[in-house]
UniProtKB/TrEMBL annotation:
Function: Involved in the biosynthesis of ADP-glucose, a building block required for the elongation reactions to produce glycogen. Catalyzes the reaction between ATP and alpha-D-glucose 1-phosphate (G1P) to produce pyrophosphate and ADP-Glc.
Family membership noted in the UniProt record: Belongs to the bacterial/plant glucose-1-phosphate adenylyltransferase family.
Name recorded for this polypeptide: Glucose-1-phosphate adenylyltransferase
Taxonomic source organism: Rhizobium grahamii CCGE 502
Pathway annotation: Glycan biosynthesis; glycogen biosynthesis
Length: 420
């Protein structure tokens, strides 16, 4: 890994987070909130990872473009990300789709979500733009990517994951030469191109792009004037640069932030119920693949004021206990048993209930004698006494959203239909 410059480039950069996506594969979890606003890891939201990466990298100007069901996301950012100070040359802008270009035009694509705010970007006069997706879980120091961008003389530098070649069929894939210059960009190819010297792996786009600001603005204006464009970075902007300019791949392993306990670069798209459940449950391991306890790279979020977690009752059949679990503040485990579960703030688990492989979002109340295995329970759900989930797949699928991997998503409307 190259050493950082004395004067960080991040100080002259703006991070622009694209957080307007619906995340429809998360089903009912995104009925009331955009994917970046979905809870993750006990107390954070998914978007906190991209925002924390930018802040920890030294970037002090951040914009977040929102669109789909943005209230929960905007409220979270207003509460948790309101500490930027203009007098320190810092800024944090929430940029909802607001018909600023046309009275009938919302954000039409990822590129359009930046294009419609060009005047705001120009006002800050930053030298570099770091375009980020707001819906992935990872730790990354963008300063290294900025340095590579400047040193290589690229028009665009694209963050890439090294993945087994045939696992790349669902990504945008970079075909690179031996210098990591991108010679072709293929969207979800059936036969992904391998990496030179490592043909069993492919370079998949992370949706992270670095530009010189002036170049990006020129590219966005050219694209906006094209009536045939879909106004999207992956479909329009990037392929045009690959063909007519210089696009370079940046490998995530070069800038991934790892503590002493993290052995492999960690990046997750938690865009399905199964992936979301697994990434949360992974945090309950003795040594999880993602270290959220690393104080040198904190994940900033809304620091809710809450009392400590509490475990009560110590009878043989009614003991408040948790093994291999993560329990947030303001939880009361009252004679309930938890194993390999993750509980967000304010959960109440009542006597004789048992949770195994449960991801429980904030303010859930779990009734007595409930037995819940391999579940995701949405915010504020009241689980009735004696409910059993995870033992009868056919019955579970009739009552709840059961994923291909056997995980049941439980929401309050689903509970209400049971009439219990």
């Amino acid at each position: 890994m190259v050493e950082k410059r004395v004067q960080p480039l991040a100080r002259d950069a703006m991070a622009y987070v694209l957080a307007g996506g619906r995340g429809s594969r998360l089903k009912e979890l995104t009925d009331r909130r955009a994917k970046p606003a979905v809870y993750f890891g006990g107390k954070t939201r998914i978007i906190d990872f991209a925002l924390s990466n930018a802040l920890n990298s030294g970037i002090r100007r951040i914009g977040v473009a929102t669109q789909y069901k943005a209230h929960s996301l905007i409220r979270h950012m207003q509460r948790g990300w309101n500490f930027f100070r203009p007098e320190r040359n810092e800024s944090f802008d929430i940029l909802p789709a607001s018909q600023r270009v046309s009275e009938t035009q919302w954000y039409e694509g990822t590129a359009d979500a930046v294009y419609q705010n060009i005047d705001i970007i120009e006002d800050y006069g930053v030298e570099y733009m770091v375009i980020l997706a707001g819906d992935h879980v990872y730790k990354m120091d963008y300063e290294y990517m900025l340095q590579q961008h400047v040193d290589s003389g690229a028009d665009v530098t694209i963050g890439c994951l090294e993945v087994p070649r045939m696992e790349a069929v669902g990504f945008g894939v970079m075909h690179v030469d031996t210098t990591d210059r991108i010679i072709d960009f293929v969207e979800k190819p059936a036969d992904p191109p391998g990496i030179p010297g490592n043909p069993d792996f492919a370079l998949a786009s992370m949706g992270i792009y670095v530009f010189h600001t002036k170049f990006l603005i020129d590219a966005l204006r050219r694209d906006a004037a094209d009536p045939n464009s879909s106004k999207d970075f992956g479909k329009d902007i990037i392929p045009h640069i690959v063909k007519n300019g210089k696009a370079v791949a940046h490998r995530f392993a070069q800038s991934c932030v790892r503590s002493d306990f993290e052995h492999e670069p960690y990046w997750r798209d938690v865009g399905t119920i199964d992936a979301y459940w697994q990434a949360n449950i992974d945090l309950t391991a003795v040594v999880p693949e993602l270290d959220i306890y690393d104080k040198s790279w904190p994940i900033w979020t809304y620091a809710e004021i809450s009392p400590p977690a509490k475990f009560v009752h110590d009878d043989e059949s009614r003991r408040g206990s948790a093994t291999s679990s993560v329990v947030a503040g303001d939880c009361i485990i009252s004679g309930a048993t938890l194993h390999r579960s993750l509980l967000f703030t304010g959960v109440r688990a009542n006597s004789y209930s048992k949770l195994d492989g449960a991801v429980v979002l904030p303010s859930v109340k779990i009734g007595r004698h409930a037995q819940l295995s391999n579940v995701v329970i949405d915010h504020g759900v009241i689980i009735p006494e004696g409910l059993i989930v995870g033992e009868d797949p056919v019955l579970d699928a009739k009552r709840f959203r059961r994923s291909e991997g056997g995980i049941c998503l439980i929401t309050q409307p689903m509970i209400d239909k049971l009439g219990m």
